[in-house]
Design goal:
Length: 280
C-alpha cells in the first residue's frame, strides 16, 4: 500500500548541487587564506603599502618559508568578527591592495622566489573610492604583469573566487581549487539580479554559471582539485592543510624543473586557450 503523505507536511526543498557547494564555500568556519599561510608556511614577514596611496587591510603579502624554500605568499583577508569584516571590507581589496600584491610579485621576481597566492573573495571592492583610485586599471595591470612574471606562480582558491578581483591574483602557472570552492565571473546573486531582475533566483543562477570545482576544471580554468572531508574543510582543517602543502610542493617541483622561458610560454598558452569553443 502506498504511503499516505500528510498534506500539512511541506515537502523537503531539494538544494541544487551548485548551491550546496556555494554554501560550503561560504561557510563561516571554513579556513581562510591566512589560516592556510599560517599552517603551511613559516617566517611570514609581511610587506605593507603600495608606495602610491596606502596600505589595504584586505590584502596581505610577505616573504615566507615553505619546506625550507623562500617564497612570496599573497592572500586576501576577510575577518571573522563583524568589526574585523568591516575593517577588511569583507575581503574585497581596493586598488592599493592589488598594487601592493603586484609590488610583492615584482620583489619575488627580483629575488627569484616563487609566488603563491591564496584567494577567497566575492570580488574587488566596488565602492566609489576604489573606482576613483583606479580599481579597473589596478586589476588589469596585475593580469598583464602576472602573465609574464619570470618566476613560478601558483594560485589556490580556498573558498569563493569571484570576478576580476580573484583573477587579478590567479593568472598563474597552476591554479588550484579546494573541492568545495567556486570560481566564477560573477556571484550567483549578481547574476540573478542581472538576468532575472530577482536576486532570489540565486540557486538557478548557480546552476547556470557552472562554477563548481569540477565544472571549472572541465573548462580548463583550474589545473587541480584538492579534496576535502565529506563535511567540508572546516571539519578537519589539519588534514586539508597537509593535503594543500603536499599538492603545492608537487606542482612547485614540476614548475621549477622547467626553463623559465618555457614556463612563461606554457602560462600564456594556457590562458589563451581557456574555455575556447569551436563549431563546425
Amino acid at each position: 500500500m502506498a504511503e499516505i503523505q500528510d498534506p500539512k507536511q511541506a515537502p523537503q526543498e531539494v538544494i541544487p548541487e551548485a548551491w550546496r557547494k556555494t554554501e560550503m564555500a561560504r561557510h563561516p568556519q571554513r579556513p581562510y587564506p591566512m589560516d592556510v599561510i599560517e599552517a603551511i608556511f613559516t617566517d611570514f614577514s609581511e610587506v605593507h603599502g603600495d608606495r602610491a596611496f596606502g596600505d589595504d587591510p584586505a590584502m596581505a603579502c610577505g616573504m615566507a618559508m615553505f619546506n625550507g624554500q623562500p617564497v612570496m605568499a599573497i592572500c586576501n583577508l576577510k575577518g571573522r568578527s563583524t568589526k574585523e569584516k568591516v575593517h577588511r571590507k569583507f575581503g574585497m581589496p581596493d586598488p592599493e591592495g592589488y598594487r601592493k600584491a603586484l609590488r610583492a610579485m615584482k620583489i619575488a621576481e627580483k629575488f627569484n622566489r616563487p609566488v603563491i597566492s591564496f584567494i577567497d573573495l566575492a570580488g574587488a571592492n566596488p565602492g566609489l573610492g576604489a573606482e576613483e583610485r583606479g580599481q579597473g586599471e589596478a586589476i588589469a595591470r596585475n593580469l598583464l604583469e602576472m602573465s609574464r612574471l619570470r618566476v613560478p606562480t601558483i594560485s589556490l582558491i580556498t573558498g569563493e573566487g569571484g570576478s576580476g578581483g580573484a583573477l587579478a591574483l590567479a593568472v598563474a602557472d597552476r591554479v588550484l581549487i579546494l573541492e568545495n570552492g567556486i570560481y566564477s565571473v560573477i556571484s550567483p546573486e549578481g547574476c540573478a539580479s542581472i538576468m532575472w531582475k530577482d536576486a532570489t533566483k540565486r540557486q538557478q543562477a548557480a546552476e547556470a554559471l557552472k562554477y563548481t570545482a569540477q565544472q571549472v576544471k572541465n573548462l580548463g580554468c583550474v589545473d587541480d582539485i584538492i579534496p576535502e572531508p565529506e563535511g567540508g574543510a572546516q571539519d578537519d582543517p589539519a588534514c586539508v592543510m597537509q593535503t594543500i602543502a603536499e599538492r603545492i610542493q608537487w606542482h612547485l617541483g614540476e614548475l621549477q624543473a622547467m626553463p623559465i622561458d618555457t614556463l612563461i610560454q606554457k602560462r600564456m598558452a594556457k590562458f589563451r586557450n581557456i574555455a575556447q569553443f569551436y563549431t563546425s
